[in-house]
């Protein structure tokens, strides 16, 4: 933005500078041409004045020996005026050709002056005087013809140059008027453009703040440029963080309310249910009860046990036990969990279509501070869920690795089932949400809470080909045990359990 402001100021300055320089250059050019034109007209006036002086001298010659004859002093003044007029022409700079013509003209003037002087000062016979008068008359007539020729030759050129000068002055005036009208319009248009470039991002930011204030945490500012782009990106990050914090607070509040309600409800049901179960067990042990009734009572006791298991899950979800941290080898916990899981019915099938487990455990991962029993509960739940997602048989892959970028351990449990609907991926960790016919919807919710108690995260994602992967991330904090040596024995990568 600073760069654009500087560019704008430079652009406006250049516009004013160029306009000012053009106006100054136009005025200077017009002034020079006007001065030149005035000088040319002055020269033309000098030529006409010289013609008048020559005609006056000739008139003095005509009036000689008449009653209108001028005095000798007047005649001398006329001659001096004619000579001074010719001398003025030499004060200007001329080309060599014109300079030569002026020299010739001055010589003719001098010759005419000499002839006139002889006429008015010489005393001779009548025939000689008439000859001198004729000579002076011819010189004056020749001089007058030469000056008239020069004047007649230069007059059209002077007139043409005068008209051209007036035309140029008219064009210059039109250009100046146009510049005076267009320059403010151009400046105003540029100002409007730059103001829009400056104010539009501000309006976008104000709109975003109002939308955010109204509770629309999903609103994002469109892409902006320059410093406004950085502000917009920071605003979008802030909105995302606020939404995440809001969802976390909402989730925490829901968990709190659900925990309080579940805990109270479980305690209220647990004790009466224990009495009902004890009474039924006493009835079942009574030999007087017929076999048919004993079967019904046995089924009732089994359903009560299921209710007790559900209540236990509710209590574990509402008030999970505080983890007992100790140095834990995650690979050892995974090995023990897989050994227990393989004994479950879901991993054994008489027709050979059971679920197989493949272990890809990195023996060089760090030991961490964690509760091994809670980790085993988490891993068991994920492995059993993966197996139950493949009723026709398949393969569960358990991986462990260390991620140096996040300084955390990553444990992945993948299956080859049908996967999860992408719209349901974010819902599977909610309490009581399940896709199983006989599920309670608390297994993954409890798993998520136990992992979060260890400062970790869990997320689900569909594989590229088949099935889904649950990825557990457990941070390696300052409480972890030293990293194991690379020669510690561990299971071979890719070994099938």
From N to C, what is the helix and strand string?
HHHHHHEHEEHEEHEEE
**Mean of all residue-level pLDDT scores:** 76
Number of strand segments: 8
* Rg computed from alpha carbons, rounded to a whole number of angstroms: 58 Å
Instruction: Give the strand line-up of the largest sheet.
Output: 6-7-5-4-2-8
**Level-1 CATH class name of the largest domain:** Mainly Alpha
Using the 3D structure, state the CATH architecture of the largest domain.
Up-down Bundle
| Apparent shape | rod-shaped
Helical content band: 55-70%
The N- to C-terminal Cα distance equals: 63 Å
Number of domains: 3
Q: The CATH topology of the largest domain is what?
A: Four Helix Bundle (Hemerythrin (Met), subunit A)
Folded structure, characterized:
The chain has about 500 residues and is of the alpha+beta class. It folds into 3 domains: about 1-190, Four Helix Bundle (Hemerythrin (Met), subunit A) (Up-down Bundle); about 225-320, Orthogonal Bundle (Helix Hairpins), CATH 1.10.287; about 325-495, Histidine kinase-like ATPase, C-terminal domain (Heat Shock Protein 90, 2-Layer Sandwich), CATH 3.30.565.10. It is about 65% helix and about 10% strand. It is built from 9 helices and 8 strands. The chain has helices at about 1-60, 70-90, 95-120, 125-215, 225-285, 290-320, 330-340, 370-390, 445-455, and strands spanning about 325-330, 355-360, 370, 395-405, 410-415, 455-460, 470-475, 495. It has a 6-stranded mixed sheet, with helices on one face. The longest helix has about 90 residues, at about 125-215. It starts with a helix and ends with a strand. The model is unreliable at about 480-495 (pLDDT under 50).
């Amino acid at each position: 933005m600073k760069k654009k402001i500087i560019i704008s100021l430079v652009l406006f300055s250049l516009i004013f500078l160029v306009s000012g320089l053009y106006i100054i250059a136009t005025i200077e050019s017009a002034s020079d041409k006007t001065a030149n034109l005035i000088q040319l007209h002055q020269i033309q006036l000098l030529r006409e004045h010289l013609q008048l002086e020559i005609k006056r001298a000739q008139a003095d010659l005509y009036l000689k020996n008449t009653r209108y004859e001028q005095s000798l002093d007047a005649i001398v003044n006329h001659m001096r005026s004619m000579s001074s007029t010719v001398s003025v022409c030499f004060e200007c700079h001329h080309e060599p050709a014109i300079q030569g013509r002026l020299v010739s003209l001055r010589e003719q003037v001098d010759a005419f002056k000499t002839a006139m002087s002889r006429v008015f000062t010489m005393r001779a016979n009548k025939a000689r005087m008439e000859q001198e008068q004729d000579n002076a008359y011819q010189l004056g007539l020749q001089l007058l013809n030469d000056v008239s020729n020069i004047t007649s030759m230069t007059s059209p050129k002077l007139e043409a140059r005068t008209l051209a000068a007036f035309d140029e002055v008219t064009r210059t005036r039109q250009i100046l008027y146009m510049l005076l009208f267009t320059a403010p319009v151009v400046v105003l248009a540029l100002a409007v453009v730059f103001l829009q470039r400056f104010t539009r991002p501000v309006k976008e930011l104000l709109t975003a703040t109002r939308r955010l204030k109204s509770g629309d945490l999903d609103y994002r500012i469109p892409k902006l440029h320059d410093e406004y782009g950085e502000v917009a990106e920071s605003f979008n990050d802030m909105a995302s963080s606020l939404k995440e914090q809001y969802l976390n607070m909402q989730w925490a509040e829901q968990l709190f309310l659900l925990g309080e309600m579940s805990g109270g409800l479980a305690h209220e049901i647990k004790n009466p249910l224990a009495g009902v179960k004890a009474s039924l067990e006493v009835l079942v042990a009574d030999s007087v009860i017929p076999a048919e009734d004993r079967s019904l009572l046995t089924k009732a006791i089994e359903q009560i046990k299921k209710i007790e298991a559900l209540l236990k899950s509710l209590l574990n979800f509402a008030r999970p036990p505080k983890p007992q941290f100790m140095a834990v080898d995650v690979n050892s916990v995974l090995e023990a969990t897989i050994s227990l899981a393989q004994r479950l019915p879901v991993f054994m099938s008489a027709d050979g279509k059971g679920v197989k487990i493949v272990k890809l455990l990195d023996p060089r991962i760090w030991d961490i501070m964690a509760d091994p029993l809670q980790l085993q509960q988490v891993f068991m739940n994920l492995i059993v869920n993966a197996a139950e997602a493949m009723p026709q048989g398949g393969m569960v892959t358990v991986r462990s690795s260390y991620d140096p970028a996040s300084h955390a351990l990553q444990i992945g449990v993948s299956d080859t089932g049908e996967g999860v609907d992408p719209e349901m991926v974010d819902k599977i960790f909610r309490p009581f949400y399940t896709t199983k016919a006989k599920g309670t919807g608390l297994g993954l919710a409890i798993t998520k809470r136990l992992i979060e108690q260890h400062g970790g995260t869990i997320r689900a994602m569909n594989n590229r080909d088949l099935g889904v992967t649950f990825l557990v991330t457990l941070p390696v904090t300052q409480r972890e045990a030293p990293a194991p040596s690379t020669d510690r024995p561990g299971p071979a990568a890719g070994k099938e359990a």
